[in-house]
Specification:
DNA-binding region (chains A, B, C, D): 46-65
Number of helices of chain A: 10
Domain HTH tetR-type (chains A, B, C, D): 23-83
Oligomer: homotetramer
Radius of gyration of chain A: 22 Å
Number of domains of chain A: 2
InterPro entries (chains A, B, C, D): DNA-bd_HTH_TetR-type_CS (IPR023772), Homeodomain-like_sf (IPR009057), HTH-type_Tx_Regulator (IPR050624), HTH_TetR (IPR001647)
GO molecular function (chains A, B, C, D): DNA binding
Pfam families (chains A, B, C, D): TetR_N
CATH superfamily of the largest domain in chain A: Tetracycline Repressor, domain 2
Order of helices and strands of chain A: HHHHHHHHHH
Largest interface: C-D, 47 and 47 residues
Structural class of chain A: mainly alpha
CATH architecture of the largest domain in chain A: Orthogonal Bundle
Distance between the termini of chain A: 57 Å
Chain lengths: 215, 215, 215, 215
DNA sequence: CATGAATGAGACTTCATTCAT
DNA sequence: TATGAATGAAGTCTCATTCAT
């Protein structure tokens, strides 16, 4: 079941150090776990499944991970930053266009990775994970908020909206978008969502100005 | 464990019908399930836990439900409509105030019931349940959309936003609000959220007009 | 669920004494047990099934029988003699015809009653029952043997066969016949079996004599 | 619990292949099942019993068998042919002696194996098994019948008996013998049974001829 | 007496984890 | 180091039996 590499060139030295192999195996396991968690859910997936799917024996699984949960944590650590929506730069181009592009990229990436789908199942089971996630969210919110504050100081935002709430709303949209596209029969339209977000952030006349400046 | 009723009318006939007791027990089980699902997650909760928590034997659980999943379904059927956000009436009062009140009521109710928290865990496991939920969401989206179309015809909405997307955005906010309050250290502020929603729906001058008309 | 009798003539006195009713219920239960045991096997049949099939509540079952096994014993006690093959009278008519008639009657009766089919399942579980059965068989064997001895003294049997073994063989045929008819595609033929039995018991010339005497 | 082999050849390589051990454990389970089924009956025996009796944990049982029934099937597949009575060769020696020897060997083997005792309990529960058995019986009957037909053509059988019924009768005796020895207090006497069978098959004068020819 | 809800022991089965090879 | 057989705790579910109504 092992032995799939090391036959690429003739005469090869024992050039692939064991740590690399080990890392590869570890990775194969994580990847296998990711697929199965997404496909069948976390608790529906057994350690044996993960090992089999990675092409190793169950014993090997336990050599690399203390248990299923730890594999999951590793999965997260590896990919957490992929989950984090990028912070938009509001003033270096047409915000609507920038946002639409960012949204599309982010949603697509989330869908590729897919782990966000198992999160809800896990939070009650794993307070530590939960902690990590909440922390990540809090940071994200701070970053959003401070970037909004910057453009507020430039007088670009609505005067009558609470920026904290604006940041929260935008995050809500950005985070939950891809899971909740079954509402309408229409395809999700990134440009339209971008418009809505811009409306929450900028008064229309400001937006026009920004669009003209850079367009 | 038994003995909780039989004090309804004077005379004390042997009249407490069996069905009443049975229904009460069934209810105790559902309630017990609800609590434990919310507290520990669905797959973390065993049938035995639910029975014990309801103060009955495991056999009793299986008298009323074929299994854990069926209990969950019953729970849903009983409370699905409680989960559905109410449809706001946009033009019979200050929309911001109306919305804030609705939001507060809805969020509080969701938090009391709490099942929405297990939903994401369940959807991959129970396609039937998933179906029900998606359907409910679709209907809700339609209702929102058509109510927005009405006020659009009255010329009250932004001309440049796609109403379908607006409806989607509002639902996103309304549905996910209570779960995601860990972002900021501030308390969730219904009035501010209401303002943001109103901004997405109404141009400011329209909103002012609506507020003055009824205020 | 009860109340099915006592409406036969007008003005009727409370004339059906309880014991009769009780006996009827008891009987209904035994009968119900018999059917279900035969259809589904003993251990496949639950006390609840038996009660339901008899149209009474499970509590009633336990009023009449201490448990399933006791019901079975009662069933046996009631019907044991029906299971016992009749002892043929060898010399009062054509033995082949007499035997064929007896066999047919016996096999048919066994099939109607049907309990012989659950016996094998029960013997390991219920040594007491087992005891009863072995005893019944032993008696039957004795009866057969002594009846064979009588005709032996009249010089009607083979001289070179051990009568004990002859009796054993005949019982083997008589007892197992109806269960083992799947061997051949042909219908079971009582007359032919009777002939075989007669061949074991009587030398042909004796048989002819007996047939002529009475025919 | 482990350690029972590894002494086959000198040198003691780490050469006992896992499959051998596994097969041994599988066998231990089957054997354990056989004993318990015979002693306590099929439905009285639990998977746990079987595992414990084989000296392994319950999980090990389920590694080798999907459930109790499957173990039983394996047991059958392994030993079905042992259950099948051998076909006698009627004319190559004194039939009585040959038969007595065959009967003794067959009965003893049946008693050693013992599974025939659980058969009757199983047939109603397991139609598939039932099918296998009926088929085996039908084949056996055919074989018997055709061997009888052969000696019939040689003029060695009774003219007035139906060979189909003769075959059926012989099988009845051969199959049920060992279970039903409780009839009489005497030991079962193979020679006497053989005599009875011969009487059903051969007219006495033919038998004498056969005995003299080869004796 | 009849009822059937309630009980809980115990059977069945899965799976995370260990450990000898 | 890799393997996978073995383990047994823990969950699911059934059913004989009791007992309040």
């Amino acid at each position: 079941m092992p032995d799939k590499e090391k036959n690429q060139l003739a005469g090869e030295f024992p050039f692939v150090p064991q740590q690399v192999r080990a890392q590869q195996k570890r990775h194969a396991l994580i990847e296998s776990g990711r697929c199965l968690f997404i496909k069948n859910g976390y608790s529906q997936t057994t350690a044996k499944d993960i090992a089999a799917n990675a092409g190793v024996a169950i014993g090997t699984f336990y050599r690399y991970f203390s248990d299923k949960r730890q594999l999951l944590r590793s999965l997260f650590e590896e990919q957490l930053e992929m989950l984090i929506p990028p912070e938009p730069s509001w003033v270096h181009g047409d915000p609507e266009i920038l946002l639409a592009a960012l949204l599309e990229k982010h949603y697509k990436r989330l869908d590729e990775i897919g782990i966000h789908r198992v999160l809800p199942e896990l939070l009650p089971k794993d307070p530590e994970l939960s902690e990590i996630l909440i922390e990540a969210r809090r940071k994200l919110h701070s970053k959003f908020l401070s970037s909004l504050r910057q453009i507020e100081e430039m007088g670009l935002t609505w005067k009558d909206l609470d920026l904290d709430t604006v940041a929260w709303t935008v995050l809500m949209i950005v985070e939950n978008g891809p899971q909740k596209t079954e509402y309408s029969d229409n395809e999700i339209n990134y440009a339209e969502i971008a418009k809505v977000i811009c409306r929450i952030v900028f008064p229309p006349e400001i937006l026009v100005r920004l669009q003209n400046k850079e367009g």
